[in-house]
Amino acid sequence: MKVCEVTGKEKVNTYEVAQRRIREAVARLGLAEDVYEWLKSPDRIVEASIPVEMDDGKIKVFTSYRSQHMDLLGPYKGGIRFHPDVDAYEVKALSIWMTLKCAVARVPFGGGKGAVSCNPRLMSPKELERLSRQYIRSMASFLGPKRDIPAPDVGTNAQVMAWMADEYGKIQQHNDFGVITGKPLDMGGCVGRNTATARGVVYAIREAAKVKDLSMKRATAAVQGFGNVGYYTALFLEDMGTTVIAVTDSGGGAYNQAGLDVEALMAFKKETGSVKGFPESEDIESDALFALDCDIIAPCAMENQITKDVACNVQAKIIAEGANGPTTPEADKVLTENGVLVVPDILANCGGVIVSYFEWVQNNYNYYWTEEEIEARLQMKMVEAFNHIYNYQCECEDSPSMREAAFMYAILRLADVMKTRGWIN
């Protein structure tokens, strides 16, 4: 049994999970086995050892990855993750999910994903910069604005993207900002990109609440994870009138049935390193958060957080997956049987890739939209995607879950393009 270094939980092989979900969707759709064969594995995965000089003058070698799953709909697209527990299987799974996510969001990208096995919290800014530049040097021949376009992910941010875009420009001997999205504004970044994933999650929650006849202003919510996505998800829910009663991060959690002040909670975390111990709150762990009597849960941390045992205790009406792969297949069955509406990751968190698409378009044209235009376009795309999946789910005769419907919808789109391009009969 492999255990996650960060969570201490058993690490599920997410690559096998992704393949199983694809096989099940292909079978439900009655498609040829050829479709599964095309989708089950990446076009290529690059693994590189990258040496980095640390601040003490010693060299440390890190293992890095880039998985390019499929460019059927457009260039490969996907974030770069810095995390101590990442491996090749996880990166391949995430690249598969990106292909499906782009198909659901109807943006012209394929799936990609990158990662470095490291702990960015234990590295200085200079060490992170050297690591970021070395990563691009090792992967540059596989990247490009018409080939493969990275973005931030867990453990990376706009500053890391700036270093990477700058290094790519040095290699190419000219600026080519369209090679990376999620950059700072003065390097061709897009207004609203930093909050895009969370905004997408909240738009998905709002649409799911309509299905469940739930008032956002009378609803209660709990958020697992308090990084970029978790913080802004909690903040935007609060802005909509929803009472955020619990938040957890890697150091612990805070719970108050009467509600938490999200901005004050973030200020407390910046001061202490965790939300645990927030004034006028009770300590709570993630498993207990999932069991709370609340309307909405947004898992915004890592994969495989909602296991079968955890799912049995869920009381929420809606789960919206801000993280990639937070729910195991066994847990999915329990949640579906218990009537929980799970808005799957390939729909709920596709706001990030939608606004990355906007950034890429703007970089290519050197013409930039206002924040109001970006948010309006994002909202339109998210509502459209939710309705496509929900309506498709309702039209299916065998009553699939929303996750199953999302996989089926995405794979059907991809299969149609495969047929048009002559890949399958």
SSE map:
Layout: H1 14-29, H2 33-39, E1 44-53, E2 59-70, E3 76-83, H3 88-105, E4 110-117, H4 125-139, E5 148-152, H5 158-172, H6 193-211, E6 220-224, H7 228-239, E7 243-249, E8 252-255, H8 262-272, E9 282-283, H9 286-290, E10 296-299, H10 308-311, E11 318-320, H11 329-337, E12 341-343, H12 345-348, H13 351-365, H14 371-395, H15 402-421
Parallel strand pairs: 3-4, 3-5, 6-7, 6-10, 10-11, 11-12
Antiparallel strand pairs: 1-2, 2-4, 7-8, 8-9
Helix pairs in contact: 1-2, 1-3, 1-15, 3-15, 4-5, 6-7, 6-13, 6-14, 13-14, 14-15
Number of helices: 15
Taken in chain order, the helices and strands follow as HHEEEHEHEHHEHEEHEHEHEHEHHHH
**Uncertain ranges:** none
Shape: globular
Task: Supply the helix-strand structural class.
Answer: alpha/beta
Give the distance, in angstroms, between the N- and C-terminal Cα atoms. Answer: 41 Å
Strand order of the largest sheet: 9-8-7-6-10-11-12
Portion of residues in beta strands equals: 15-25%
- Radius of gyration, in Å, reads 21 Å
Number of strands: 12
Overall pLDDT metric: 95
Features:
15 helices; seven-stranded mixed β-sheet; 425 residues; alpha/beta; five-stranded mixed β-sheet
